[in-house]
Structure formats: structure tokens, C-alpha cells
From TrEMBL:
Acyl-CoA dehydrogenase/oxidase C-terminal domain span: 238-385
UniProt entry keywords in alphabetical sequence: FAD, Flavoprotein, Oxidoreductase
InterPro entries xref list: Acyl-CoA_DH_CS (IPR006089), Acyl-CoA_Oxase/DH_mid-dom (IPR006091), Acyl-CoA_Oxase/DH_mid-dom_sf (IPR046373), AcylCo_DH-like_C (IPR036250), AcylCo_DH/oxidase_C (IPR009075), AcylCoA_DH/ox_N (IPR013786), AcylCoA_DH/ox_N_sf (IPR037069), AcylCoA_DH/oxidase_NM_dom_sf (IPR009100)
Cofactors that this protein relies on: FAD
Protein name (Swiss-Prot/TrEMBL): Acyl-CoA dehydrogenase, N-terminal domain protein
Family designation: Belongs to the acyl-CoA dehydrogenase family.
Any one GO molecular-function label of the UniProt entry: acyl-CoA dehydrogenase activity
Span of domain Acyl-CoA dehydrogenase/oxidase N-terminal: 30-125
Length: 387
């Protein structure tokens, strides 16, 4: 019996099947030149538009704004296929950020007017979204953020500095989390939509980094930045609640994309060890090699099952905090291990940039840090255990 690394067949609706097929059709165009874009740390708007043309960004949004109203679980299966077919992991991460940070936040919590005005361009990808959370002195400790939002008549004035804003250098819309009350704790935070071009909002250039180089991130400086109070997403003081839900979506979407990338990596490794010969026989005949490949397969499948189980729980209306945290830890750590194993099994070729293996290690390195560090995720699990 041959064990396949492919995802099990899924009975999807015609619209989702067509979406997967469109992603498959544009993948060769997107994949062409992705290693050169990585070397140059280049986010390509043209490549973004190729992906946007598939309809992915509107897949879960209401039909009245150009979406397909698919469920979270269906979206997860679609983006897992994205990870399997598209080799530009930076583009994939920017897409996940766009979907969760702005699309989900606006669709789930914004006023009808904000949704009407902005969701159509989010759905088409004509407007790129980001969210600004982290500050120089407030990373995992979200409640320590110092960026403020003070009400002034019909406006709210924002002041502060955000950093590590994924998509920030190219974003058209930013969901900014700010402190709108001196009340300590989560009830003092609010989410505010800030369009590019707003006076006092300085979207800085991309910061140079080693991982996900085609996904730009940078700083957002807010200096007496005035936006209408109507741009507050949800009610004032609900920012922490919104962020909690948004980060759940971001984890489920971004890391199930990683699963697709891990499956593709495993397929390449299997072909490699079957065809590469050393000491007169294929690498696949060496027990140590077989053990390594089996460990890669088990890690990938465990991550996949954990993520989809968490996604199903969230879709059923459960918070699934511990389940999502466990899935994030399992996937981010497995992604690093399997990427390193793939490089070793490719030998000297594995560290060549043109092989496309070493980039997997670099692109996996940020996983334990972004979307809530793994240390914080472990604290969530401990709390769920009553510790």
C-alpha cells in the first residue's frame, strides 16, 4: 500500500472547486521568478493581482459585496491548496493577513456603512489590508500598548508608533488597535480603520528581514492622525475582543497554508530519496532516511488534523482557544523541523538558493513568533487546564 501525502478528497461546492482550479491555473505564473523576488525582498503588485483575480479574497465575504459566502472550514481547505500549489510563502502570508486582519475584522464587526464602503475592494484585492498591533514596547503583552485614540467631537485622534506591520508598506487600509480609555485591562482597547493617505498616518518602508521576504512589514507612525469616529470598528472598548477573534482566524488561515507548503515539501523529498542514489542504491532504502521521511509525514498530518479540528470547533461557535493554540504550536514547530530535514535530505543541493529548499527554513522561522508567540500560546493552554 502506498501512503499518499495529498489531502483527502473533499466534497466541495462548484464555486469552491472552481476557486481551487483558478488558483492552480495562476500558480505557474506566480511561481515564476519567486526566488528572485525573495532575493530582492520584492512584493509584486502584479503577482498580487494574479492571486486576487482568482476570487480568493472575497471567498468568505457576503455575495452582495462580491464574495462567495463560504464557511471558515471551506476557506481553510482552499487556502491549504494555495499553500500546496503556490511557492511564494511570503505572498501566501500576505494573503492570509489580508483575509483575517481586514476582511474578517470588517465583515464581522464593522458598521454597515464601513462594510459597504470597503469590503468590495477588500474582496477584489484592489485594496490591500493590514492590522497594526505590535509596538516597540508592547509585543506579546498587547495590553501594554501605548498608542492612543482620543475622541475630539466627531473624530478620533490617534498618536503612537506601531511596528512589524505585515503588509503595512503596501497597504491601503489598516486596522489599528489603540487605547481609547485610561481604564486598565482589555476594555480600554478599540479597533480603528485608517486608510492610507490619512493626514498624520505615515506608512513606513519595508524593514529588511530574513524570513518571508516577499511579504513586506514595516512601521506605522500616527501623529495627530484624525479619522472619523465612524471608523471605529465595533463599539469603543471592544478592540481586545475583536483582536482575539481576528487572531484566531489568522492562525487558522496562515498555518493551514503552512500545512499545504509542508505537503508540497514532503512530495519533493519523497521523489528525491526515491531517485537519488548513494553507495549503489536509492536513498529511500536507507533506514535512517526512511525514518526521517516518516517523521516529516507524521508531523505534517498531525498539524493538519489539529488545525482543521480547531477550525471546525470555531465554525461551530466555540472559542476553541486551547485547540487553536495547540494547532499553532504543532504547525509552526513542525514546519521548521520538516524544512530542516528536507535541506539535509537534499544534501549539498539543499543549501543552494536555486533548489528552493533553504528558503523553506527561512520562511518557517517566524512561525513561532507571529500571530501570538508560542510562549503565549502555551500560557493559553495552561489556563485552559486550570493552571
Amino acid at each position: 500500500m502506498v501512503i499518499t501525502t495529498a489531502a483527502p478528497p473533499r466534497d466541495e461546492g462548484t464555486a469552491l472547486t472552481r476557486l481551487r482550479e483558478r488558483i492552480e491555473r495562476v500558480a505557474p505564473t506566480i511561481n515564476r521568478g519567486h526566488l528572485e523576488r525573495d532575493r530582492r525582498a520584492l512584493f509584486s503588485r502584479e503577482v498580487w493581482e494574479e492571486l486576487a483575480g482568482t476570487g480568493l479574497f472575497g471567498s468568505f465575504l457576503p455575495e452582495e459585496v462580491g464574495g462567495q459566502a463560504c464557511s471558515l472550514t471551506d476557506l481553510m481547505h482552499v487556502v491549504e491548496h494555495l499553500g500546496y500549489t503556490v511557492r511564494d510563502a511570503g505572498l501566501n502570508f500576505s494573503a492570509a493577513t489580508h483575509l483575517a486582519s481586514t476582511g474578517f475584522a470588517l465583515n464581522g464587526f464593522a458598521s454597515p456603512e464601513l462594510r459597504r464602503r470597503h469590503l468590495p475592494t477588500i474582496a477584489t484585492g484592489a485594496a490591500i489590508g493590514c492590522h497594526a498591533i505590535t509596538e516597540p514596547e508592547a509585543g506579546s503583552d498587547v495590553l501594554a500598548m501605548a498608542t492612543t485614540g482620543r475622541t475630539d467631537g466627531d473624530h478620533i485622534e490617534l498618536n503612537g508608533l506601531k511596528t512589524y506591520v505585515t503588509n503595512g508598506p503596501v497597504a491601503d487600509l489598516a486596522v489599528v488597535y489603540v487605547r481609547t480609555s485610561d481604564t486598565p485591562g482589555p476594555l480600554g482597547l478599540s479597533a480603528v480603520l485608517v486608510p492610507r493617505g490619512t493626514p498624520g498616518a505615515d506608512f513606513g518602508p519595508a524593514l529588511d528581514k530574513s524570513t518571508l521576504r516577499t511579504s513586506p512589514f514595516g512601521r506605522l507612525r500616527l501623529t495627530e492622525c484624525r479619522v472619523p469616529r465612524a471608523n471605529v470598528i465595533g463599539a469603543a472598548g471592544t478592540g481586545f475582543l475583536i483582536l482575539d477573534r481576528v487572531m484566531t482566524w489568522e492562525i487558522l488561515i496562515a498555518f493551514v497554508i503552512n500545512v499545504g507548503e509542508m505537503r508540497h515539501r514532503l512530495d519533493r523529498v519523497v521523489k528525491r530519496v526515491e531517485t537519488r542514489r548513494q553507495f549503489g542504491r536509492p536513498l529511500a532504502e536507507f533506514q535512517s532516511v526512511r525514518d526521517t521521511v516518516v517523521e516529516m509525514h507524521m508531523a505534517t498530518q498531525n498539524a493538519r488534523r489539529a488545525l482543521h479540528a480547531a477550525g471546525e470547533a470555531v465554525a461551530a461557535g466555540h472559542r476553541a482557544t486551547a485547540e487553536t493554540a495547540m494547532a499553532k504550536i504543532l504547525t509552526s514547530e513542525a514546519n521548521i523541523r520538516t524544512a530542516q530535514a528536507a535541506v539535509e535530505l537534499f544534501g549539498g543541493e539543499g543549501v543552494l538558493t536555486d533548489t528552493g529548499m533553504e528558503i523553506g527554513v527561512r520562511d518557517a522561522l517566524g512561525g513561532p513568533i507571529y500571530s501570538g508567540s508560542n510562549a503565549v500560546q502555551r500560557q493559553k493552554i495552561a489556563k485552559a487546564l486550570g493552571l
